[in-house]
Amino acid sequence: MTSEDIKNLILEIIKDIDDEADFASLDPDKPLRDQLELDSMDFLDIVMELRKRHKLQIPEEDYPHLATLNSCASYLQPLLKDV
Amino acid sequence: MRTPLLVIGGGLSGLAAAIRAARFIPDVLLVEKHSRLGGLNSYFYRNNTLYETGLHAITNYAEAGDKQAPLNRLLRQLKLRRKDFSFCQQMKSEVIFHHFESLTFSNDVDVLNSEVRKKFPRAAVRFQKMLHIIKHFNPFLPSPFRSARNFLAETLQAPLLAEMMLCPLMFYGSSRENDMDLSQFVIMFRAIFLEGMFRPQGTIKDLLDLLAAHYLELGGSLRKSCAVKRILVRQNNVIGVELDDGEIVECDYILSTVGHEETLKLISSTRVSPSTNLARLGFVETMYQLRQSSPNLPEDKTIIFFNDGEMFSYKNPADFADFKSGVFCFPANFQDLPRKNITEVRSTHLANYEKWKYLSATPDLYSRQKLDTSLRSAQMLENLVGSFATNIVYENTFTPVTIERYTAKINGAIYGSPEKVKDGNIGYPNLFLAGTDQGFLGIIGSMLSGVSIVNQHILPKL
Fold first, then answer.
1. N or C: which end of chain B has fewer CB within 10 A?
2. What integer best gives the mean pLDDT of chain B?
3. Which residue ranges make up each domain of chain A?
4. pTM of the model
């Protein structure tokens, strides 16, 4: 997956969590949670969906790497490079 | 058989936990010992009519757009769509301290604000200050017991107003006599006074059916009339359960919603010493069906929280029930509910489990006492609104013994142990507690309890 694919995957997962999520003014370097009014419970859904869809086991200590759209892409790219 | 996660108890916390887990884990198993789901919020049939148990009103109302509200967070976590539900908001409710004062409130907090300004003008500014504290308080941080009574006394400096605030909050969610933990108080205050009350347009059965269907669709398994005889433990790890019929179910994790002490009893057949000496609180509830609505019964009030006197006493009564205070619910009085011919009224009072338990050995006396309770309770309501009891065509009274029989609750105490286990950890690495004894109460609260314990302890590890 390219960095762009991964960002789209994350947005698709978020859309699935909250179908009213608005990505129009999303800053890829700012925390997703603040911008999309997600809480820690919603955030866990992203982790769980990545596991369900791509068999990715993300350890709890790595959750901070998923804070922004860009940090998601750089953290996940090595893990999803063969997908 | 084997399951990664066994959920014990098909009440609302167990159902929510099972749905949450089944979204991400295959082969979750939910077991319920009763033949129906719902636990405290269930139903039964009499005279071809469905009667709801438990549910008066659901607290934590929120509009669809409010993403951070507990109700909407819960729906997202369970992947339920808000538009699949029709929620009917309360009309208005009232706290009545007979011969002293009354306060009307609704899902619009300004109604309560203006009542306080009008009736407690000298406390109005301090009341606003209290609202500010409550809005900014984090009730989920672990902390030792702090007295809500002391907080109210200091913040409001208006004893009667403080008692009137406590009365509904205690009746709708305090497992502890006389006082509440400040965190619990804040959670309940927001749930009732700031968010408000509602109910689904359909019956509790419709809601339970919807949740069960959703769970099965996600691939979960459900067994009703299926009681756990004991939980099997090896070297402090849970390895499975033995069911009443002798079948062994192996599992990696157990989430129990049947209470703290109740769960420990399933682990050890020897006597479990109670985790606290504080009393558990029992309730009696009567539902009255009326031939027709009496002109005296309010058509615009959903709930009346009532107290006879200036001081509100919330404790295990010396007699069968304490008629000096109580809750009256008018289930027809929600906005946008279709009108029904038969009108229902429900009343709830604190009750003494030991007295009911002792009497239940003599069925005649037990029945007579239930009837007496129903009459006296109706009389309390008549004192407030005027006569209506001549229109009663059917009535049914639950006692703590009834609750004990149909749920797992020790002493039939609907709010469970006075001591809560907020992190759900009761000393085993793969067995956790959710529901009543974890400490989030009410329908939305208990469902969020199931969800958050699954999120916290199970999903990250499986």
1. N
2. 94
3. 3-76
4. 0.94
